[in-house]
Amino acid sequence: MQRRYDIDALRALAFCLLILYHCAMLYVADWGWHLKSPHLSEGLQWPMLLVNRWRMDLIFLISGLSVHFLLRGTGAGRFLAQRSWRLLLPLTFGCLVVVPIQPYAQGVANGLVEPGFGAFLLRYYQFKPWPQGAFDGWQYGFTWNHLWYLAYLWVYTVVLAALLPLLRSRAGLRLQGALASLRGWALLVLPALPLALFSILLQPHFADTGDLIHDWHRHAIYFTVFLYGYWLGNDAGLWAELTRLRRRTLTLAPLLFAAYLALLKLLPEDVPDAVQYLIWTLRSAYIWTALCAILGWSHQLLNRPLRWLPWATEAVYPWYVLHQSLIVLIAYWILPLKFGPLAEPAIVLAGTVAGCFVLHEIVRRVPLLRPCFGLKARKRRAPAGLGPASAPAPKPA
């Protein structure tokens, strides 16, 4: 099977966008985050909102696509064991080693944690509740912060593995075929309807708290797009249709966002249920149309062996694990120095990119660290004289 370069490239670009997004969280006004700069911008909210509505949906959809390819030729048990190792080890290592600087910086900034990182770690590893509001996750004694994605993805992977007999049944394949056969406006409308329905039914009852056990609204949305990615797979006809529709979706997505934004800005917060349902339906239509546009254009432009792609494909996981801790650490260091509104974000972004690059170069060279950041073990080079030409012939069956 030919490698899908566009999916590898899209994964790398999606996580690059995530790094930019988290850097911008320091500066967007009225949105809470672990640290906030004095240089806040209300105008930054609108481009952030434009991206916010589909950024994680895109990442979960790409994850579903990856599962589709990983399951080919692999049994469900082996697949689940491999994915558990590559998700749960980086999650555990990240929570214990990479993330703690974030609650420490947030707690010190909030005046609820005493300065001194060593003393903080001794208290943090007791996994006891902290003073209320010290940092996100204070009530549990620890936090996974940006690594929540790994926990959610592992749960969705387990659920999908359990559903494989159903998905591979005649009814499951018929449903997958129905999605793959969608063309034109049906492709742009029908997959958005479950997203709208889940928002209408679940969003009023489940806030987006990041609580894995009670986050049922986001679970419904993210698992649906994860399943869409698994079903989308490598269906040539569906990818050709997404590519054909790419100009239409690129035009339609901003129009839907403009209508959605107009309703948010012009209407009061307390609106009748019917109006709220309309807003959520517009949001769902925008999300799916934006995803279709991204998939169509990436398939058209990126499905080729780009020179930077092998390095970026390996770098994605370590950069994801490292980036937010570096953002928070650099911000914690430089916010008291009172740099200007241009110099400060430039230093944060440049320092984050440089830190990710240097640490990734270290991680990829240390065998013990590689699995802690989601990297596969390096293949050992065959000794001289034992290359393919001199390898012993296989024994007859």
From TrEMBL:
Record-linked InterPro entries: Acyl_transf_3_dom, Glucan_succinyl_AcylTrfase
Entry protein name: Acyltransferase family
Keywords annotated in UniProt: Acyltransferase, Transferase
GO MF, any single term: acyltransferase activity, transferring groups other than amino-acyl groups
Coiled-coil zones: none
Pfam families linked to this entry: Acyl_transf_3 (PF01757)
